[in-house]
Amino acid sequence: MKHFLRIALAVSVLLIGWGPSTTNAQTTINGRVTDAATGEGIPFASIAVKGTTAGTTSNADGRYSLRLTQTADSLQVLSLGYATRSYAILRQPSQTIDAQLTSTATSLQEVKIYAKGGDPAYRILRETVRRRDQFDPARLLAYEYESYTKIEGYINNFGGKRKNNRRPGPISRLLGKLPAITDENGQPAVPVFISETFSNVYARSNPDKIKERVMKSHVTGVGVSDGGLIAQLTGASFQQYNFYRNSLYVLRKDIPSPVGSQWETVYTFRLKDTVALGEAVCYEIEFEPNRATDLAFAGTVWVDTLQLALAQIDARVDKRANINFVDELHIEQEWSATASGLRFPTQTQVTIDTDEPAPHAPGALIRFFATARHITENRPKETGFYDPAIELDDDYRNADATFWQRVRPDSLSADEWRAMRVVDSVRNVPLVKVTGEIIKLGVLGYKPLGNLHLDLGPLLYSYAYNSVEGNRFRLGLRTNTGFSRKWLLSGYLAYGTRDQAFKYSANIEYILHRKPWTVLGVRRSYDLERIGISTDNIGDNSLFAAYSRFGTIRRPYFQEDNLLYFRRELGRGFTQTLALRNRTFEPQFPFAFRPQLQDNDQTIRSGYRVTELISETRFAPDEVMLQNDNLRVSAGATRKPIFTLRYTAGVREVLGGDFAYHRVALNMKHSFRMGVLGRTYYTIGGGIIPSTVPYPLLYTPLGNESIFYVGNAYNLMNYFEFVCDRWATVQFEHNFGGLLFNRLPVLRQLKWRELVTAQVLVGSVSQANLATIPALDAQGRSVEGFNSLNRTPYIELGYGIDNIFKVLRVDAIHRLTYRDNLGRTGVPVTPFAIKISGWLSF
């Protein structure tokens, strides 16, 4: 309080102004107020003349000028967080006094201080943000540390009273009978998931690399097993929270950091106190979003008064923000100084309290706890060491109770011990066991067949109905790790009731090496296909692939496909695939072509066989791959683009190949954050086929005649509407994340998110490829040709609303060009359509 009274006195001096002059002697004092430790200027410091009402404040650089008209003996310099200093005033016309202030601890009791120019918190935060690069651990040449992570999952909010003393619902009654613990609010909570992971984390810059080696892991939960994929997902790689970054990527959302570049645009700050945290004295600053409905944090940040570096942060996002299924997101983090003087997040706790999906329905509580210990700095390893990004130790499952007691940062509380014992009881309840299996089936799409080491599925492709096959039934099987850790066998058998034909596929894959990942595979299949909807076009959109098997199939053909491939990871993000492919084209519609115009061969044919050499190079430097036994799954890429270069060479007279040709295609996929404006997703691609081949071998853009919106398709283009041998594409989507709707009083409660889309295609077909199509086939039937683009690009523009009822998306799409293009497809063009799609998202 003593320092506070001094500051209050100085402020009052400034407000009172100049008093009457008692002498005509004039003295001018100039100087600069600086931090004694750093030499940085201290803005808005108070300079008061002892025994008078004269005074001034320093500018943004700490400089000041004071003119005295009365006699005085000393000058006092004051600033929040610094010790007050006095300097003698000499009896001379001018004098320079450079004040150097030393930081000190000042504890204020429920007092808020506002300096000239606004709340002092803004001055502190401005300097903290300016010094980010000095303390951000990402700026280290390299670092490594030991990590311990613990994740707990509970089902809660099922024991509350209901209106009119009604009985609890069936789910609540079931949960009430299960073993439970008591949460911090005194309510029962059923533990359904507990994991502990101990790992070593390594990182370096230039180039940016990060690697986690999971040494030990233990996972217990409903519907999960102690598998490698879960061990990698529960490690430190997915618990990285660096508030020195401009934003934090949490629950697939970009949340601006209160000490990021947008700190003043997004947040309001208030200096609350100056307190001691350990051996450091820190400013305690409260912050909150400028608008309560913005996707931003609210909480408290503690900044070291000496270095203006992060010491601790407590940040929350409540249910008013636009995050689905989350009642509250809470991040608590402690930062400690390293040997080099940088700051490092040594302890992080994240709590996610989910919103109840329906009134009186139970909710869920998830807790993440992570620590970093034994931090080593600036000892980079060879770049190859950091591949793969996540790696499991050979005996990661083998760890006894003594090991976990040794590596845990603190001993478990009584409730945590009880939770670890109770979760085993819960997962063995018969009904809970069945529920867990249903969840696994919905996520994976495969049903394990007991001890046969076989999985049945994918169930999504089990049935279809179309104009060629009638009722199509399919049975698929694959082996799992119980069968072999080297061999992977999979396949399916399908049958159509109308064409009464069997279709099949058989695939054998052998894992040559796991480090680096190297596989050799062979596949043979025979099935019904349709022009314009191929696996290369559809990609990994399994729902659209299953849907394409329904309805009227135009331009169908049978294909026998034989494929031999070799795939190897060459380095972090680089994957190379080499393949030899031999396939046939057996049309089930009027089709013909002239195969060799350059040799004056006018023979008209309808079917063909091609032999292809394929090279595909994929570069995804930001992608994290999860690897477990025979499975390898991508965890996605969030910052850097993914490039794919594919070259195909057709070889004539090898394995019956009819054509020699070349095809080159390049694709780039990326997304980036545009600050408060939301996130942009885009894909750019292009290619060329400088050869003369039948049109089924040319590029066919993926159309979409369904009522569903498909992200990688042209949603108002019909199937097989255009064909190109030279093409360039751009597909764009920007999701504003509720930027507009969050500001409208009625709509902001709905948590809708506005978005815009655009698709552009430029392409052409050479005259040589147009000339391959005769007017009639060998049976005298009229041959169906194709449409090509002219100099006008194909353009679609759209706008839509996402997150309707938290699962639905509605897009309004306008087709701007080729609106009268009936052509040879026989299907009228739709110039405008409303399309829907849906998925669960945060």
UniProtKB/TrEMBL annotation:
Q: Which UniProt keywords apply?
A: Carboxypeptidase, Hydrolase, Protease, Signal
Residues making up the signal peptide according to the UniProt record: 1-25
The GO molecular function terms of this record are: carboxypeptidase activity
Pfam families assigned to the protein according to its UniProt record, in alphabetical order? CarbopepD_reg_2 (PF13715), DUF5686 (PF18939)
Write down what this protein is called: Carboxypeptidase-like regulatory domain-containing protein
